Automatic annotation (TrEMBL), chain A:
Lineage, broadest ranks: Eukaryota, Fungi, Fungi incertae sedis, Mucoromycota, Mortierellomycotina
InterPro entries per UniProt: Ub_conjugating_enzyme, UBC, UBQ-conjugating_enzyme/RWD
Protein name stated in the entry: UBC core domain-containing protein
Highest rank taxon of the organism: Eukaryota
Key words of the record: Ubl conjugation pathway
Ranges of residues in domain UBC core: 1-132
Keyword Hydrolase: no
Coiled-coil regions, chain positions: none
SUPFAM superfamilies on file: UBC-like
Automatic annotation (TrEMBL), chain B:
Listed InterPro entries: Ariadne (IPR045840), ARIH1-like_UBL (IPR048962), E3_UB_ligase_RBR (IPR031127), IBR_dom (IPR002867), TRIAD_supradom (IPR044066), Znf_RING (IPR001841), Znf_RING/FYVE/PHD (IPR013083), Znf_RING_CS (IPR017907)
Keywords for this protein: Metal-binding, Repeat, Transferase, Ubl conjugation pathway, Zinc, Zinc-finger
Protein name: RBR-type E3 ubiquitin transferase
Keyword Transcription regulation carried by entry: no
Stored Gene3D superfamilies: 1.20.120.1750, Zinc/RING finger domain, C3HC4 (zinc finger)
Chain spans, region Disordered: 1-23
Catalysed reactions listed for this entry: [E2 ubiquitin-conjugating enzyme]-S-ubiquitinyl-L-cysteine + [acceptor protein]-L-lysine = [E2 ubiquitin-conjugating enzyme]-L-cysteine + [acceptor protein]-N(6)-ubiquitinyl-L-lysine
Length: 132, 510
């Protein structure tokens, strides 16, 4: 396995749960920060998307990332395609972080994390914004 | 009720018979005798009724087939292809035919229809082929690609399509598995790749989608019922009309939102009321009515006993619960606060009284709303018990079966009245206080009094000697209650149509 730049494998010993480290790219608001990602693969992977969450102490402060680690990214939910890979998701997340212009939580963060279930795939996502 | 075979044109301009539970039989009889004028007067549509038609599944399938057949003939495609094209146009034949004449290929691509069968065959894997889904690089076995050229191995394709159809219930637009590719997988390809049971599930989904695609059709939501109901009112009218329909299976529901009968409250109001009852907006009200904030650290504090000398557990601030001022100014008057009338504390108390009043108002309506639902259930339970008793009575005495049947009708009417009453409380909750509201509440009260009287009558112990008397009383009350219900429904429906009700919220669009 050769992870893309900025990504390192913390734990990938089985095909159920992977933990990866993600580093904020240079020249972006997240430069120097380290994040942890958790990938949960269901039995139907890759036909079904894995469950992807930010975990650990440092959850990126980003308009599309809730403080419970849930990520609002269309390719993880209804725009998933079986051609996607762990590497391509990491790349999407990197690009999502890198294009961020102001570090803030989603506007509905407080309300969302109170009612959200632990699996973000149970949330009906509406993708408000394609620009970030 | 229309039945039997139905041509697709009937969806467009059929006549609507008024129909109530009994009207079918009575109408036929009346025609035989030649009193149809009188009967039609009697069954004139009431203000709270809407026109609708019930279609069994077979009629829905027939209508679908007839539409596709028609289009297939015009465009010179097969019936399946015509159906796929129609689906992408929400079954709007005219628009499809018109656009197809101008941009045939674009329309075909959009609907995922491939006219030329040669394009959809399974390929042999090309040299150096690696399936981008499973990374299989063996050269044996078939592969598949659409016109976009994204080729995947056949087992992956089959898994993908099966997943989409069986797990995700998708039948409209299944796209090429490649990320970002929006080429629609055509029906022939699906048919070639998936197993027969999956294909039949796919067909079933398409039939379901047909009803969902048409604004004036809706499936009957009752369990195991396969009928669809057609109601041709525009959806925009549902703010002022409560489109209650009754399927031939007996289930009454709202055509606008698909919930059970919620007359007289319009859909938007129902949605708001349910949200209010379900979410924790009332928790917030409770907090503001029963708690205060510490004057220093703003922690929320509920006083659960003791004197007015409060000490915040968090920041140790000492204050007076009554006036919220610092305790240091109070000395030793532990249970009285002589500073009560000072203006700074009056404001805080006003706010609290207001929120308490609004909570109490809500609870007033909610309790009655919930109570009628509960009582309807109790009425049913009681009926079950009584019914057994009546049957026994019928066996042991000379009463006929017909003579002991009056209770059933009474309980049915009672239940429907309780359901109506229930929603009148949600309706009343949102009404602004004015004379019209007073009139509404008068009607509501009359119905409620009548309902409770009938309910009480049904609880009376049944004695053999008095059964004739009881029967007369019950029949009498049943008719009266039924007519009070009509008065309420008629008046609210007319009021909605005339815009007579004044609500303090805006639920306009659903």
């Amino acid at each position: 396995m050769n992870p893309p730049a900025g990504v390192d494998i913390i734990d990938a010993n089985d095909f159920k749960l992977w933990k990866l480290g993600l580093a904020g790219a240079q020249g972006t608001l997240y430069e120097g920060e380290k994040f942890q990602l958790e990938f949960n693969f269901g039995p139907n992977y890759p036909l079904e998307s894995p469950q992807v969450l930010f975990v650990g102490d440092n959850i990126p402060i980003h308009p599309h990332i809730y403080s419970n680690g849930h990520i609002c990214l269309d390719v993880l939910y209804n725009h998933w395609s079986p051609v996607q890979t762990v590497a391509s998701i990491c790349l999407s997340l990197q690009s999502m972080l890198s294009s961020c212009t102001s570090k803030e939580r989603p506007p509905d963060n407080a309300a969302y994390i109170k009612t959200a279930r632990s699996n973000p795939k149970h949330t009906a996502w509406a993708f408000h914004d394609d620009s970030v | 009720m229309s039945s039997g075979s139905m041509s697709e044109d009937e969806f467009v301009d059929s006549d609507y018979d008024d129909f109530e539970e009994e009207s079918d039989i009575e109408y036929e009889q009346a025609e035989d005798i030649g009193f149809s004028d009188m009967i039609s007067e009697k069954h004139r549509k009431k203000a709270y009724e809407v026109d609708f038609t019930v279609f069994p599944l077979s009629d829905i399938l027939a209508a679908q087939a007839s539409a596709s057949n028609h289009v297939a003939n015009i465009l010179g495609v097969t019936q399946d292809q015509a159906a796929a094209l129609l689906r992408s146009f929400k079954w709007n034949k005219e628009r499809l035919v018109e656009r197809y004449m101008d941009h045939a290929q674009e329309i075909l691509d959009q609907a995922g229809v491939v006219l030329d069968d040669v394009q959809t065959r399974l390929l042999k894997r090309p040299r150096g082929f690696v399936c981008m889904i499973c990374f299989d690089d063996s050269s044996a076995g078939p592969a598949l690609g659409l016109r976009c050229g994204h080729v995947f191995c056949q087992p992956c394709y089959e898994h993908y399509l099966t997943q989409k159809i069986v797990e995700e219930g998708e039948c409209r637009r299944i796209l090429c598995p490649e990320s970002g590719c929006d080429v629609v997988v055509d029906e022939q390809t699906i048919k070639k790749v998936v197993q027969a049971p999956v294909m039949s599930k796919y067909r079933q989904l398409q039939d379901r989608a047909y009803v969902a695609d048409l604004d004036n059709l809706r499936w009957c939501p009752a369990p195991n019922c396969e009928n669809a109901v057609e109601c041709r009112l525009p959806h925009s009218s549902f703010a002022t009309i409560v489109p209650t329909v009754q399927c031939s299976c007996g289930y009454k529901f709202c055509f606008g939102c698909g919930l059970g009968d919620h007359q007289p409250a319009p859909c938007g109001l129902v949605k708001m009321w349910q949200k209010k009852c379900a979410d924790d907006s009332e928790t917030a009200n409770w907090i503001s009515a029963h708690t205060k904030e510490c004057g220093k650290c703003q922690s929320t504090i509920e006083k659960n006993g003791g004197c007015n000398h409060m000490t915040c557990r968090k920041c140790k601030y000492e204050f007076c619960w009554v006036c919220m001022g610092p305790w240091s100014e109070h000395g030793t008057s532990w249970y009285n606060c002589n500073r009560f009338e000072e203006s700074s504390s009056t404001d805080a108390r006003d706010q609290q009284a207001k929120s308490r009043a609004s909570l109490e108002r809500y609870l007033h309506y909610y309790n009655r709303f919930a109570n009628h639902e509960h009582s309807a259930k109790l009425d049913r339970d009681l009926y079950m018990k009584t019914e057994k008793k009546m049957e026994e009575m019928q066996r042991t005495s000379d009463l006929s079966w017909i003579e002991v049947q009056f209770l059933k009708k009474a309980v049915d009417v009672l239940t429907s009245c309780r359901m109506t009453l229930r929603w009148t409380y949600a309706f009343a909750f949102y009404l602004a206080r004015n004379n019209m509201t007073e009139l509404f509440e008068d009607n509501q009260r009359d119905l409620e009094v009548a309902v409770e009287a009938l309910s009480e009558l049904l609880e009376k112990p049944i004695e053999r000697e008095k059964i004739a008397e009881l029967r007369a009383q019950v029949l009498d009350k049943t008719v009266y209650v039924g007519s009070r219900r009509e008065v309420v429904l008629e008046d609210t429906a007319k009021g909605l149509a005339e815009g007579r009700w004044e609500f303090f919220v805006d639920f306009g669009k659903i």
